[in-house]
Amino acid sequence: MEDLRKTPGRDTLVTGMGFALPGPGGLCATPAEFWETISTGACHVEKDGVFFGQVRTDIADVRERYPELPAKILSLYSPVQLYGLISMAEACTDAGLDWRAGQLSEAAILAARDGGDCWSTQYADILNTDRNKATREEINELGTRLALTGIPMDVANVQVALVAGTGPNFTVSNGCTSSAVLLGMAHRMIAAGEVDVAVVTGADVFGLDFLQHYADLLDRYGELGEEAGETVDAMEDAALAMTEQMRPYDRNTPGSNMGNGSITLVVESRDHAERRGATPYARMLSQRTRRSPQHSAFAIDRSGTGMVQASRDAMAGLVEADQIDYVNGGAEGDRVFHETESNIVGRLFGDRAARMPVTVQEACFGHNGGPLGNLGVAASSLMIQRDEVCPTAGCLDPADECHFDPVPGTATRPMRVDHALSFNYTVGMVSSAILLGKA
């Protein structure tokens, strides 16, 4: 069988990226704004002492990018749909693709969703509506909102409708690996000649009130363990931090800050990109997903068996481990990842592990579910293009358990990056590895 990863002209290139993430002015939208944030390790998740990545935007930001969309329609869209439209507009502008001229009519329009609490909000609105007081207009609006925003296809539906697309259109939901898995699917579709362009969006919105209450419950969980003289178990490692900044790979990390947002990447075949004169950021060589062999659906495999296998499968026939220059890790502020990723990097790179730069940028925006795979690929692609490695956001004092180089601080490190691996994990230690290289 022909190896699709080596078909001439069918290479998958990253040619555009756009964002709807927390930023210094409320919104990080462009590649330049994204790079300014990740290259300095700036964290935009704190507001009034609460550490949660909020995207401060509204319908006006969408209308600015899509003036033809009536405000009445946009008022029916959920926040995650608005974020998805903003990030797609920015990615298409960055890639130089004019959807109004039909340049996305046959493209794959794909979305990745972890889920959060977006959908439940629509159900709650219906349950809380008094049958005897609701007007005909209110009932119609509730039904429309449910159809538009109460399903996993919510983001993909509004994106493909906007461009009047006839190409592939679907949603993948696989926890925090969702957009990484979806990028792999887009890569295979391009390699097989099914499409020339894929617009891949990862988006999620989490409820701040819900998370604050859950964080209170976790505090109570710890208190009950202390009262009983018990050692707090895995829940301690999976801490949700709402009052302190997350610090991946740092000895003082309190846990994970959550965040909202959307990231869109445009990927396309080399032939198509060259025909239209696009300037690529990087080449996506492969993606693989594997799981650690455990019987629990809530397992934490500190040996990292699934990620080691996914990485080796992704590299097979393309590069050797000693050709990898950089790893974008999957840590989210939990201490369990210090040991887990040390074991993975050690098994993959042997004697090189201690010198391998492994960094993450989640602390800039918060742990945001669906966008995480796109976040790692966007950040790694810029590092490959610029030959600079970004620091681990929030890491100042590396933990002793981190047997690799987390690049602490607030400045990039100049170094040539020819090949990089991007890691993502989900509950149960499902692991995705993406291999990237220079375009």
Low-confidence stretches: none
The ordered H/E elements are: EHEEHHHEHHHEHEHHEHEHEHEHHEEEE
What percent of residues adopt helix (DSSP H or I)? 25-40%
> What's the β-strand tally?
14
Strand fraction band?
15-25%
Q: Provide the spatial order of strands within the biggest beta sheet.
A: 5-4-6-7-1-8-14-13-9-10
How would you classify the helix and strand content by structural class? Answer: alpha/beta
Number of helices: 15
- The backbone outline, from C-alpha atoms, is globular
For the sheet with most strands, the description reads:
10 strands, mixed
* Average of the residue pLDDT scores: 92
Distance between the termini: 25 Å
User: What Rg, in angstroms, do the CA atoms define?
Assistant: 21 Å
Short structural description:
The chain has 439 residues and is α/β, with parallel strands linked by helices.
